[in-house]
Amino acid sequence: MKLLNITISNLASLTKAAVDFEQAPLSHSGLFAITGDTGAGKSTLLDGICLALYGKTARLRNDLKNTVEFNGDDIKLNDPRNLLRRGCAHGQAEVQFVGQDGERYLARWKIERARKKTDGKLKRPEHILFKVADESQLTQSSSATVNKIEQLIGLNFEQFTRAVLLAQHEFAAFLKASADERAQLLECLTGTDKFSRLGQAIFEHHKEKKSQLEQLQNSLANYHILSDEELASLKDTITTLNGQLTQLKAQSTQYQQDIQWLTQKEQYQLKLQHYQQQLQDLESDIQQQAAKIEQAQLAQLTQQIADNRQQASTLVSQHEKLTHQYDELIKQDYQHQLEVQQALVAESERSQRAAQEKLKNHEPDIKLVRTLDNKRYANAQQLEDNKKQLAITEQQLQELLEQIKQTDKLLKDNQQTQNEQLKQLEQHATLKRALDNWSYLESTFDNISQSTEHIENLKNNYNQQYDERSKLELKLAPLTAKIQNQQSNHTALQEQLDRLQKQLATLDYEALQKQSYSLKSALQLSLDGQKNDHEQLQLAANIDKYRHQHHTLQLQLKDTEKQVDLQKQRALLTQENVTQVQLRASEKVSALRAQLKTGQECMVCGATEHPYGVDHIDSHWQNLIADFSEQQQKAEQALTQAQQRHNDQVIANEQVNTQLQVSLQRKSQLQEQHAKISNSLKELGFEEYVDIDVSQQRLEEIEDKLNRYSELSKTQQQLWQQLQTYQHELTQCQTQHSEIQQKIQSLSAALDANTQQQNDARNTIAQLKHKAQQHYSDNTWWQQYEQNMHSAIQSLTSKVNEFAKWQETLAQLQNTQQQLDAQQRNNEQHQGKLQQTLTQQQSVVTQLHNTLDELDSQRKVILPLTRSADEWFNELQSECEHCNSKWTAHKNTLTQLEQAARQQHIQLEHLKNQLADNQAQQISVEQRFDEWLATQRQQHSELNAATVAELLAVPFKQYEHILKNSQQLHLQHTQALARLNHLHEEIEQHQAQARTTESLDQLAQLQADLNLQIEQVQAHWLDNNTQLKQHEQNVANRQVQQNELSRLQAQYEHWHLLDKLLGDATGKKLRNVAQTQTLKILLQYANQHLSSLSKRYRLSIIGHSLNIAIIDKDMADEQRSVNTLSGGESFLVSLALALGLASLSANKVQISSLFIDEGFGTLDPETLSVALDALDSLQAQGRKVGVISHVSEMTERVATQIHVKKQPGGYSSIQIKGQI
Hints:
By secondary structure, the protein is of the alpha+beta class.
């Protein structure tokens, strides 16, 4: 990974900054310095790199959970958006770099405020990645950008801050830390905290497995198992009870069938009475409705002629209506109306011609009047405009005369005011010098005021620092006593731990665990072996029983197969007999026999004697068919029964055979299991089954020792944690003691510096006063200044401002005097011009009055002035239009009357034709009705025209309901009669199947007694069967639990061993082991860099611990403590460790850019030169190294610099220095 350029906008103190590592001088330098004052923004450059690549910074990495109201935004204090420069609406950081694939990429992190306003809420940052070659955008979201950059660079954020951005203060603490603290720091620096978590996980798994094992051991004691004698007795009892239940249930079934037969008999009797009553009710209803039904049938008959009667009625109504229309139409007379309307049309035509002639004669006069009116209007408008202009001119002249008077008055007042201002300026001439130097005096007074306030602040700070030093001095004595007490507690705990370790050494935990495991395994194997032997004995008896059953079933199968073959032959024979008889008794053969006559030849065989041609031959054949069919059914039934027995025996044989095979297979499994148990016992050192009581006693002794070991281990762990707590508290107290001493020294130095600053501020005030008196030497005012500085300054400021206003007012008055003089001259010239214009306007108004009078005289001759030409023309035009509309209305009325007369003639002819058609239709309809009535009276003599009309007057829906009810009654009567006959047949069949002579109550009592016996026997059977099922379930569950116990015991042994070696509650064991190896690798990389920084020293590990020692080559490879190193030597070693960590973190990743933070101030010039040479040599490895420092010698030594310079206004700028 190689950085190419950095661009920052509006982040912290940097408003606009760009660093291009591809441009000279940075492109030619392997080592460059980032310099600048404190707070200028050097670290902001590194923040910009982290933001552009990972969206977060190293100095804001702590995850604060709570948000606060900060600068108007509700965000976390560690949110990188806090880096946005205050007063800016947007900011961004861009980094262009080369990835591991050799391609160039541009990463951009951008933050904006809502609506791009400085007071808007902060929006979510935008973090995207571009490929420079084709300018394509590779990602859309922030998370996708970070993942892609980690893939391209090969480092995550933590690795990047350790491999690219190096901070020496972490390694300075690393060198001086204890072993435990060094493990924690190393874990943090290398990101290998997974080993601590793994050690904690081992401890938790061991604890969980132990708890599961104890719970399972406790649960095994809760199972109750029956003995063999109890089990056999229980099974015999269940078999006996099963037989009793079968007999009782069969007797109960017999009673239930008898009760059912008696109940059904009673139901048949009730149903017979009900059916008889229904039949009687239906017959009664049919007789009662006979008359209505007959009338409804006649009504149904008249529906045949209903349309005829309806048509006849319609024709009569139509004839009456047509006759009325004809009479009304013939009464209308249109001839007289036509004559009157024609006379009105002729009169309106004459009026129309007269009005048009009048309009044509007056058109020239109307045109002349319009011409005169236009001239009069134009002359009057011109006269009005000139009058208005004349009035305006008169008003302007009057206003100008008034303005001349006012200007003359203002000139006099202005001259008087100028004289007064000159007198005031002459009286206060001493303020003129103060006014000329006022900016200097005002600045001097501000400096004196600030210096005075500074002295007061210094005095307050002096008092606060003095009080704070006194309080810190009081805290030292109790803190020293507390340190001594903690040291004694630490020593006592350490001695107690040593005694506990000796007690643990007497107990061999692994040997005890091994003995416990072997004894438990042998005990379980012995139990399994005894159970196996017992099961093999039972299995041998079962195998003999199954073999005997299998042999018996084979013999029965052979006998049943022979019976099946015999029954098949019998069934075929009876089937053939039935077929032959049915063939001979077929309908065709019967018909031929019926045609045979004595003495005549048979048409089939030609015989004249017919032995089968006798009477009742068909009934004889029917009897034969019935006999043979019965024989066939019995044969088929016997065949079915034989086949069913054969199938049952086959299934039983297969079941027995399956049970036999399962038993043989189980026997083989038990034999293999027995062999495995014997081998396992031999492996454990036992030749035969162990004694259970002795083994249990031995196990209890081992468990007691293991429990004692566990208790001692817990006590040791607790004491160790207390020791660590005391050690931590002691370290805190010592650190606090050192910090208090340092603060007291710092406060003493601050008090001395405060006194010196107060003296310097007083000297500065005296010098400023002396300079100010040279520019304003009013002794009275200076005496007032000494008494009350602020009041005197305000008084002088007021006087100087007032004097300046006087001067300004005088200048304004003089300027106003000149303007008024010029204005007065202009007003006098304008007055003469207005007077001349007024005379001309008066002459024009008089001339226009004369012209208007002459035009009015000409207009009156033709038309009075009160009437306009348009009114005159509109009157004539309205008269013409009125005559035209009158003529049109009369003409339209005449046309309508003529059309109405023609329409009357057509309608009269049409009505005559309709009346003739109606008469013919009435005659035809009456003839058809008479014919139908004559035909129907032959069957229904009571029918006549009146009866038909009465029947048709009633809606047929009423008769339809009666007819429908009649049909339903007859249908119900037929059905009721059929149900009654069918019920008689069922009663006869039911009576033929009589089952008992007992009454229903007697049978119910017998059934109740029997049910009580069944319940008692069944309850007894359920109790015994439940005991058997519980026993079987306990046996199965106990076996499962024992298997689970063996599995958990093995897992517990595994996790116990891991916990003993690597696990603990805090993960220290595995962490220290892993970090020891990490430290070795780190020191190998660090020694490579240290060899170029210092030839004298080499780092090494003390034994297998986490302690670091220094090998001094100049002292014959003497091993020294790192605490003996000087400040500069410690920095060199820390720098070597930092570079070693960079090499370790960048394993398999090429890193071409490196930034190193402060730490060079502790080196002497020679050592600094060596360190810089070593850093410069990293360029040969393809790295560009940037160093952040304030050391002047280093800035002189490093020619290429990125200088961050503070500017007025709270921002900084970037300047690249070096040889191009």
